[in-house]
Write a sequence for this structure.
């Protein structure tokens, strides 16, 4: 049965007193129980198509023509009140950026129960029980306690899971998933994809899956719609499109997908082939790789027994009743020109570790030395100097940019504050940084809300490079980028490392990209490093059971391998909350290969 029909959809936006057409007569359909993946680069029109179906385009500055039909209902002709009844009940949507989609002043649990009471007519108690069941399904740890907490207390991946629970709460006829697994680690991603597939079988739900991850497309899609600059350039069954793509653009997308294991046991990172000339560059030889860092040199960063904990308050008086052991006894070093990747599930402490390095979150104990300076003993004035040399690229690009400033002003500001050049020199630097990050100098005049999610991520990367740092802490810096732009940014980071001797702490859940960019890998679980060593050794010969599960869950960009995955994590993620008097038992790291250490288990 046909669930959704989009016929000759055309969308225009008003910009500077003229109308700019961004969707050009796109047509496709989705049947009951079918998953159609809409793929394409950032800015291709994928999300605008989804927002058009939901009738969420801003009035007065947008113009839509064509027909959008849900079952027998013509959506383009519905009143606003009737459309509100359709949203949530008949169509659920998982938005790309969970922090901007969740209400910051309402608890996560309330936002899910609100949808259940509004559309399914459940009582308060029944809605709470159903919401807790959904929280368990999407594997939010300690769901009963987290239910009454606000979105800012959740990690990026956990906020995405709340959005998924909310979208699926009313068992919609059509689920529109706009990059729903972008912020999720591979194990949670596999669980969510399985959950969506199970719900499809149970209620015949149709799914429109918007993504740039071709591994996910191979895993879940029945058909693929490829978009480029507002046009549909190719459509067909997933097996046909992957086996014999007709369009050069589709071939380029598939060629830019990093595949785990492609590098074998080589010691150095590798660039992607040059993809700028579309299919003609598919077989282009990669440029020479960066050199292996000198292991005899002194580390640029030394972290010893780093521990960061957060208070848990409860009761009428809000007394401290426990602590979240977010980072526990973490130690590692990073040399000049080296990339250390931190990987692990959402909520494992990766981002907290990165923020603790710059003391954006105050550690409870431990030692951090950066370029010979004791970071833990530094005064606020001294920390300004430290942060000039050690910059951070944040996970949420929209939340880390000032919405009232143009992106050019945001990039220019640190250059001017630190006195690194005149106004003219700063302008030239901004233009150069934007071009390095895959944008144009003209983008400097735009505000953050005028960019797609992937473009905002590139702006944040450009800002992180503004002060010529020696170490970049990159927190999911390529997670929101489509495959070809991800390849460009990874190549950019590798070029900078080769040319400037730049060091990276690269925080990511994308293990295939980690293999491409890192020299060493540290795997985190519940705030601890459970395995650390050379990239090839850790990824090709993982010794800790948790590392093995992570690697087994990586999606493979081949529809023929869809049924081959096994052993996925389905158990409850343990909570990191501990009583006030709890002290962890000391555990030792065992060397299982040269420089390859595994925590005893």
């Amino acid at each position: 049965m046909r669930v959704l029909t989009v016929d000759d959809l055309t969308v225009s936006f008003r910009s500077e007193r003229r109308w700019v057409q961004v969707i050009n007569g796109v047509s496709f359909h989705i049947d009951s129980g079918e998953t159609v993946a809409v793929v394409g680069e950032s800015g291709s029109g994928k999300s605008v198509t989804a927002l058009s179906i939901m009738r969420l385009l801003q009035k007065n500055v947008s113009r839509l023509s064509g027909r959008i039909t849900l079952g027998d209902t013509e959506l383009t002709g519905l009143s606003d009140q009737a459309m509100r009844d359709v949203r949530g009940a008949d169509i659920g949507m998982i938005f790309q950026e969970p922090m901007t989609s969740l209400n910051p002043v309402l608890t996560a649990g309330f936002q899910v129960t609100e949808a259940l009471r509004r559309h399914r007519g459940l009582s308060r108690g029944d809605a709470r029980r159903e919401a807790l069941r959904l929280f368990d399904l999407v594997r939010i740890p300690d769901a009963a306690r987290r239910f009454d907490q606000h979105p800012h207390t959740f990690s990026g991946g956990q906020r995405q899971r709340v959005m998924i629970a909310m979208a699926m709460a009313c068992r919609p006829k059509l689920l529109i998933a706009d990059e729903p697994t972008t912020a999720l680690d591979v194990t949670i991603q596999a669980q969510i994809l399985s959950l969506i597939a199970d719900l499809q079988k149970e209620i015949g739900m149709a799914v429109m899956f918007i993504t740039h991850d071709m591994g996910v497309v191979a895993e879940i899609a029945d058909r693929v719609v490829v978009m480029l600059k507002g046009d549909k350039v190719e459509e067909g069954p997933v097996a046909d499109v992957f086996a014999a793509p007709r369009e050069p653009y589709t071939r380029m997308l598939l060629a830019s997908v990093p595949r785990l294991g492609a590098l074998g046991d080589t010691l150095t990172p590798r660039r992607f082939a040059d993809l700028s000339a579309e299919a003609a560059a598919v077989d282009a030889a990669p440029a020479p790789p960066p050199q292996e860092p000198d292991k005899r040199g002194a580390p640029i960063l030394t972290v010893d027994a780093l521990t960061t904990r957060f208070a848990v308050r409860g009761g009428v008086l809000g007394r401290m009743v426990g602590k979240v052991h977010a980072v526990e006894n973490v130690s590692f070093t990073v040399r000049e020109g080296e990339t250390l990747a931190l990987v692990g599930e959402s909520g494992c402490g990766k981002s907290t570790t990165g923020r603790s390095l710059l003391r954006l979150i105050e550690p409870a104990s431990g030692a951090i030395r950066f370029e010979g300076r004791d970071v833990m003993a530094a005064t606020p004035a001294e920390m300004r100097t430290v942060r000039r040399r050690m910059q951070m690229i944040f996970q949420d690009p929209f939340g880390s940019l000032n919405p009232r400033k143009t992106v050019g002003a945001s990039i220019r500001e640190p250059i001017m504050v630190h006195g690194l050049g005149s106004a003219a020199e700063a302008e030239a630097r901004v233009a150069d940084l934007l071009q390095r990050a895959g944008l144009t100098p003209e983008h400097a005049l735009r505000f953050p809300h005028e960019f797609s999610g992937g473009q905002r991520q590139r702006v944040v990367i450009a800002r992180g490079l503004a002060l010529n740092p020696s170490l970049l802490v990159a927190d999911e810096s390529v997670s929101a980028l489509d495959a070809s732009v991800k390849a460009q940014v990874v190549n950019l980071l590798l070029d900078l490392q080769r040319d400037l001797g730049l060091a990276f702490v690269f925080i990511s859940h994308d293990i295939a990209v980690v293999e491409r960019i890192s020299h060493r890998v540290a795997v985190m679980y519940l705030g601890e490093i459970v395995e650390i060593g050379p990239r090839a050794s850790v990824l090709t010969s993982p010794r800790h059971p948790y590392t093995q599960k992570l690697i087994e869950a990586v999606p493979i960009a081949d529809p023929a391998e869809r049924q081959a995955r096994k052993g996925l994590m389905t158990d409850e993620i343990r909570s990191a909350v501990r009583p006030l008097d709890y002290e962890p038992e000391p555990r030792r790291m065992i060397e299982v290969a040269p420089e390859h250490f595994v925590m005893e288990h």
